[in-house]
Design goal:
Helix content is 46%, strand content 18%. It is built from four helices and three strands.
C-alpha cells in the first residue's frame, strides 16, 4: 500500500475548480487521485516557503542517514566514481 504524504486529497476531476482546491488547502499539500491511485501532489507556495525556512538540526540529519544507511549504500557506491 502506498503511503499518503498529506491529509488532504481530491479527485483529478476536482482540479477543474483549482481555485477552490487551493482555498481549501491553505498551506497544506493536496494528493490528487485518479482511479483510486495517487497521481500527483499539489503543493501550495505557503507549504514550500514553510519548508524552505525550516532547518533540521545536524544531529537529526545524521540520525536519519544512519538509520537509512543500508538502503542508500548502493547509491553512495555508485556515486563514488562519478
Amino acid at each position: 500500500m502506498e503511503t499518503l504524504l498529506t491529509t488532504k486529497s481530491i479527485s483529478i476531476t476536482e482540479l477543474r475548480e483549482a481555485g477552490k482546491v487551493l482555498d481549501r488547502a491553505g498551506a497544506t499539500p493536496v494528493a490528487i487521485f485518479r482511479r483510486d491511485k495517487v497521481v500527483a501532489y499539489l503543493v501550495p507556495v505557503e507549504a514550500i516557503n514553510a519548508t524552505i525556512n525550516t532547518k533540521m538540526p545536524d544531529d537529526d540529519v545524521r540520525a536519519i542517514l544512519a538509520k537509512r544507511r543500508k538502503s542508500i549504500d548502493p547509491t553512495l557506491v555508485f556515486l563514488k566514481d562519478k
